[in-house]
Structure to design on (266 residues):
């Protein structure tokens, strides 16, 4: 059995990916906290400092790099500073550290998980993903870049945050294509088996929805009736947002409404 290292193996995508990989691979997870699955090799480490990284890649055939640090995703709402900067310590510096150690250890495949829209990044978070992709392409380890649209869990968390406002802003003329991270995990697991594929097809949700439809379905399944206000979006921003969907890419099967129904608030 070959060994696959998953960074971010304790996160939303990573947990499903680890579950899918376990039957056919020895799975190792690099994380700051130790998980409790006895079928996983846990390496305590931190991509922001480099602790544990050399140990984590030793003897590994494939690295799936899915760790990330997004303060906005963690808190569940955007602050003005999120439009100006995002910390690069995990996504850029951590990627560089991991790549350097992977090259030294003779890793055969470095699969980097990224975001649809990283080509024309309008947000600092997308800019760090673009920079990390550039490092991966130049890192000297055979690679794949696997991009997905926004995950359902994050859309749910962001809408829960926004619904605390007196009115829920609904950007007009803005399309989204949210995807279940579990569906995407299946695609990533297939790419692990396929080997280095360079820039692979993008992966999105089954439907492209207007932001208004996204909010309406969320309100229905979360039994909310927040007052909404239509927020005009400048044409340039609407055009940029179209780059965040991938109607011609691979598509998951779990719709936004099916996911909301299956994942009630905790
Ligand atoms: N969320 C989305 O909508 C979305 C959409 C498209 C693509 N993606 C991409 O998919 C990947 C996974 O996203 P996700 O939403 O599943 O992430 P997530 O649930 O927020 O999990 C983040 C993961 O990163 C790890 N991590 C954070 N800081 C770390 C550090 N200093 N050292 C080591 N590990 C660290 C965390 O592990 P510990 O806390 O246990 O250390 C955790 O496992 C990312 O590359 C993201 O850019 C996300």
């Amino acid at each position: 059995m070959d060994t696959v290292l998953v960074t971010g193996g304790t996160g939303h995508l990573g947990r499903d990916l680890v579950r899918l990989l376990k039957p056919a691979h020895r799975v190792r997870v690099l994380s700051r906290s130790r998980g409790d699955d006895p079928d996983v090799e846990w390496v305590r480490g931190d991509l922001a400092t480099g602790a544990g990284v050399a140990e984590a890649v030793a003897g590994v055939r494939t690295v799936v790099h899915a760790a990330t640090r997004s303060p906005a995703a963690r808190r569940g709402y955007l602050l003005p500073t999120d439009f100006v900067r995002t910390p690069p310590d995990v996504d850029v510096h951590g990627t560089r550290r991991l790549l350097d150690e992977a090259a030294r250890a003779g890793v055969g495949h470095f699969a980097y998980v990224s975001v649809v829209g990283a080509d024309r990044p309008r947000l600092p978070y997308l800019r760090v993903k673009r920079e990390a992709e550039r490092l991966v392409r130049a890192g000297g380890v055979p690679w794949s870049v696997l991009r997905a649209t926004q995950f359902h869990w994050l859309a749910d968390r962001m809408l829960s945050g926004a619904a605390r406002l007196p009115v829920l802003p609904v950007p007009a003329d803005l399309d989204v294509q949210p995807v279940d991270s579990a569906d995407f995990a299946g695609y990533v697991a297939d790419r692990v088996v396929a080997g280095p594929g360079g820039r692979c097809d993008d992966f999105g949700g089954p439907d492209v929805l207007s932001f208004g439809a996204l909010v309406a379905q969320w309100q229905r399944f979360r039994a909310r009736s927040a007052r909404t206000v239509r927020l005009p979006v400048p044409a340039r921003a609407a055009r940029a947002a179209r780059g965040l969907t991938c109607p011609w890419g691979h598509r998951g099967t779990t719709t936004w409404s099916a996911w909301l129904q299956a994942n009630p608030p905790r």
